[in-house]
Design a protein that fits this description.
The protein has 381 residues and is α/β, with parallel strands linked by helices. Helices cover 37% and strands 14% of the residues. The chain contains eleven helices and 13 strands. One of its GO terms (biological process) is 'de novo' GDP-L-fucose biosynthetic process.
Length: 381
């Protein structure tokens, strides 16, 4: 997915020159065709970014994504959506180099694109890693959101109708606050990541109140999918289930099995993000399934999908315990369901099965490589 996106401009929506008259008749003349909405997504290469891009493209948006430069391509979750930008009539997703730690790059793309909607999904989003790199986490998650907000504030007067901004919050912000947690529950973060998300949340509220921006927070509880990163506990479990099922792995090492989380499907949650920015007034919403399950319950369900017993394969390793644990998160999404009309479509059991089925198929492909000698069979314990 090579890209020279730093010079990409809006796709031309006009009919191609020389198109047959019969085809042209069915095309709405550009002069009267409604303009496409333009969305700008930071974190487009992540789980949520890919699902949100799918949703917006299906709704007719032109989507621009900000990506960090890497020596390796990090766009695998978007490959099925990619169209070469030279095919300007079909390429409605464009990628541009930028970084939340670089205010000038954010300002440049917001000024250039003048999007209708900005979705800030980018973050160093791994809670355990945030204890290892707290300074970087704070800079990207908290100050990065402030940089993007300020770019939106500066560009808004140039955009007829203004720019609408969505900030991705996290249930981790509630930390040790007893469940259920709603929009009125106090924040008590228990990690550098959670504390940084709290700062980003209040920056968003402040810019809404101080400058009148249409700036909203979506406080999303844990949401998973087959596209979840493999170092997150749910995907770590389902990847191990697949490998154990085909004989590539025998053991799985985890931390706190009694931690309870409100797990939903990421594809459902990005729809809530979009709904939040379609309201008449900006506000903040908790998005959740309103039920919680422990890691042990997730293990039982996941291993059960392939007829295995999790206790035969799982060991607790103290290195995976966090310096400050979050025991229980369970959302109260009454406001989102009432005001937005949103509700989750995928339940817990269906979500786990979806992830396990995907990762069993992936493990079977891995085994082909191992059996052919292209991969070391001893990579996993």
């Amino acid at each position: 997915m090579a890209d020279d996106s730093s010079t990409n401009q809006h796709a031309d929506q006009s009919p191609a020159n020389g198109q047959a008259m019969a085809d042209a008749i069915s095309v709405i003349p550009p002069s009267i065709a409604p303009p496409r909405k333009v969305a700008l997504i930071s974190g487009i290469t992540g789980q949520d970014g890919s699902y949100l891009t799918e949703l917006l493209l299906n709704k007719g948006y032109e989507v621009h994504g900000l990506i960090r430069r890497s020596s390796n391509f990090n766009t695998a979750r978007l490959d099925h959506l990619y169209v070469d930008p030279h095919n300007s009539n079909k390429a409605r997703m464009r990628l541009h180099y930028a970084d939340l730690s670089d205010a000038s790059s954010l300002r440049r793309w917001v000024d250039t694109l003048l999007p209708d909607e900005v979705y800030n999904l980018a973050a160093q989003s791994h809670v355990a890693v945030s204890f290892e790199i707290p300074d970087y986490t704070a800079d990207v998650v908290a100050t990065g959101a402030l940089r993007l907000l300020d770019a939106v504030r500066a560009a808004t007067p140039s955009k007829p109708g203004g720019i609408r901004y969505y900030q991705a919050g996290s249930s981790e912000m509630f930390g040790s606050t007893p469940p259920p947690q709603s929009e009125t529950s106090p924040f008590h973060p228990r990690s550098p990541y959670a504390a940084a998300k709290c700062a980003a949340h209040w920056y968003t509220v402040n810019y809404r109140e101080a400058y009148g921006l249409f700036a909203c927070n979506g406080i999303l509880f844990n949401h998973e999918s087959p596209r979840r990163g493999e170092n997150f506990v749910t995907r770590k479990i389902t990847r191990a289930v697949g490998r154990i099922r085909v004989g590539l792995q025998t053991r799985l090492f985890l931390g706190n099995l009694s931690a309870a989380r409100d797990w939903g499907f990421a594809g459902d949650y990005v729809e809530a993000m979009w709904m939040i920015l379609q309201q008449d007034k900006p506000s903040d919403y908790v998005v959740a399934t309103d039920e919680s399950h422990t890691v042990e319950e997730f293990l039982e369900e996941a291993f059960g999908c392939v007829g295995l017993h999790w206790k035969d394969h799982v060991e607790v390793d103290p290195r995976y315990f966090r310096p400050a644990e979050v025991d229980s998160l369970r959302g109260d999404s009454t406001r989102a369901r009432t005001v937005l009309g949103w509700k989750p479509k995928v339940g817990f059991k269906e979500l786990v099965k979806m992830m396990v089925d995907n990762d069993v198929d992936l493990a079977k492909k891995e085994k082909v490589l191992v059996d052919a000698g292209y991969r070391d069979a001893q990579q996993q314990p």
